Amino acid sequence: MLSFLFFLLLTASSSIYDFKVEALDGGMIDFAEFKGKKILIVNTASECGYTYQYEGLQELYERYPEKLVIVGFPSNDFGKQEPGSNEEIAAFCRKNFGVTFPMAAKIRVKGDQIHPIYKWLTTKALNGFQDSQVRWNFNKYLVDEHGHLVGVFNSKTKPLSDELLKAIE
User: Fold this and answer.
1) Domains of the chain from N-terminus onward
2) Which residues pair with 28 in a beta bridge?
3) Which of 24, 33, 16 is nearest to 142 (CA)?
4) Distance between CA 73 and CA 50 in Å, rounded?
5) Tens digits of per-residue pLDDT, 100-121?
6) How far is CA 127 from the centre of its chain?
7) Per-residue burial over 103-126, b = 16 or more CB atoms within 10 Å of its CB, e = otherwise
8) From 24, 39, 42, 48, active-site residue
C-alpha cells in the first residue's frame, strides 16, 4: 500500500515543489519553500574523491543567497563512501567544510529503493526534461525558479565551474 501511495505521489508530481524530505537534523525540507529560487540538488558522500566539492558548494551557496539554494543528499550507493549516521554526516560537514546549506537525511539515489525525489529527477516522464542516471557521488541537478528541472551535471563538474555558474546566472 505504501509503495502504491509513493507511485501516486510520483505520477502526480509536476515540479520539485511537490516534495518534502527528511532533513539531516531530523526536521523536514519542504521544497515549496524554495519557490522563486534555483535549486541545486547534489548527492554527497564524505569519503569520496569528490568530497572536496563541499567547499565549492558552500561558496556557491554564500555567493547567491537570494537566487539559489543547495540541498545535499548523502547517499552510500557508490563505493560505500557515506557509511556514517545522519548525525556523523552533519558533524563532518560542519567541522570540515562549514556547510550551512540544507542537507537531507541519507537516502538511496539509484536502484529499487531509489528515493521518490531522485526518481523524479532521473525520469523524463516525471520531470519533463530528460532521463538521466546518477553515476557517482556529487552529481548535480539544477531546478529553475519555477520548479522545473533544467540541468544535469556530472560529478566532475565543479560547483564553481563556468558551466554551472552560467546555468545559475
Assistant:
1) 2-168 (3.40.30.10)
2) 22
3) 16
4) 14
5) 999 999 999 999 999 999 999 9
6) 14
7) bbbbbbbbeeebbbbbbbbbbeeb
8) 48
The one-letter amino acid at 139: N
CB of 103 within 8 A of CB of 90? yes
3-state secondary structure of 165: helix
pLDDT at position 146 is 94
- Distance between first and last Cα of the chain: 43
Q: Phi, psi (5° rounding) for residue 90?
A: -60, -45
Q: How far is CA 70 from the centre of its chain?
A: 7
Q: Which residue in 46, 39, 118 sits closest to 78, CA to CA?
A: 46
List all residues 6 or more positions away from 156 whose beta carbon is below 8 Å from its beta carbon: none
Contact 55/121 with Cβ under 8 angstroms?
no
Q: Are 10 and 120 in contact (CB under 8 A)?
A: yes
Residue at grid coordinates 531522485: 118
**What cell does 135 get?**
553515476
Task: Give the tens place of pLDDT for each residue, 54-87.
Answer: 999 999 999 999 999 999 999 999 999 999 999 9
Q: Is 93 a catalytic residue?
A: no
Determine the Cα angle at 10 with ends 169 and 80, to 5°.
75
